[in-house]
Amino acid sequence: MSDPIVTFDEAAMRGELKELVRQTVEDTLNALLEEEADDLIGADRYERTADREAYRAGHYERGLTTTSGQVILKMPKLKGMRFATAIIERYRRRETSVEEAMIEMRLAGVSTRRIEDVSEILRGSSASAATVSNLNERAFEAVEEWRSRPLTRPYPYVFVDGIYLKRSWGGSFENVAVMVAIGVNDDGYREVIGAAEGLAESAECWREFLSWLKGRGLSGARMLAGDKAAAMTGAIAEVFPEAAYQRCTARFYRNVPAKVPKSKRSQVAAMLKAIHSQESLGPAWRKPATSPPNWTA
Q: Which PANTHER family does the annotation name (predicted)?
């Protein structure tokens, strides 16, 4: 019996990322509630001032459904004053999170001033520059914690590639390379194991990225797959000399049509898929001989 075919647990990967966003939203909303309670009281927690009008009396929990999922809010209880939040209406159980929008705007490179203006329109009060900065810091802390997590299990197969995204850089938007690694663990499931920004897909950037993965514990790599870029293949051979290298099938599919006549491209694409669908090398070599005559004409 042939070895099990590697499967892609897309639902598990999406669930992990969604939980990361949900937890970040929950932490952010609770931090904003604490800040709002301090503003109403006129003093920080345990601070005694002459202008203080109320005191804290603990918290109570309530659920809130956001676009990122169900979150648990720790609503401050005040003695001597009713806590009426402007961030979340008292009996509202489903809303579009303004804080989520603020985080997304910040990550997209929108200026702090612009976020302040938009938040005033959305919730009736402007978020201060400090609040926007705190939201940004919390979001990046959660992302960095996930991105830098230790890799404690072996990943026999690793897919690496680079994509280009626009980001704010020195007051202007420029394309930057983001190097991504997806590992197939010993149970046969894929997960994102690394993502890092680089100035370009140079040999030095790939070498640093792969060394970073190795430093976080990436082990047991038997094969790495990627495009045919010399910078990438050279870095792989240097950092993981014991691992085999395979050209990415998807990239190969994209490159082959440029080498055949247009009238034959659909036939060649179908032939390639038939060959790659074979479970072992022997049937794959024999497949072209059993193809319809017009495929190899």
A: TRANSPOSASE FOR INSERTION SEQUENCE ELEMENT IS1081
Burial bucket for residue 263 (CB in 10 Å: 0-12, 13-18, 19+): exposed
For residue 208, the number of C-alpha atoms closer than 13 Å in the C-beta half-sphere is 12
The answer to whether residues 176 and 169 touch, using CB atoms and an 8 Å cutoff, is yes
The whole domain housing 54 covers: 10-145
Please check whether residue 60 lies inside any domain of the structure: yes
Same domain, 287 and 173: no
- Whose structure tokens read 């659909």? 266
Residue 106 parent element (H or E): helix 98-107
Same domain? 195 vs 80: no
Question: What pLDDT is stored for residue 79 in this prediction?
Answer: 81
Specify if 281 maps to a domain. yes
Q: How do residues 23-49 score in pLDDT, each as one tens digit?
A: 888 888 888 888 888 877 776 555 666
Measuring CA to CA, how many Å separate 260 from each of 244, 248, 249, 268? 29, 19, 17, 8
Largest CA distance in the chain: 93
DSSP per position, 197-261: EESSS-HHHHHHHHHHHHHTT-----EEEE---HHHHHHHHHH-TTSEEEE-HHHHHHHGGGGS-
Q: What is the spatial distance between Cα 135 and Cα 120, in angstroms, rounded to a whole number? A: 16
Please state the pTM of the whole predicted model.
Answer: 0.56
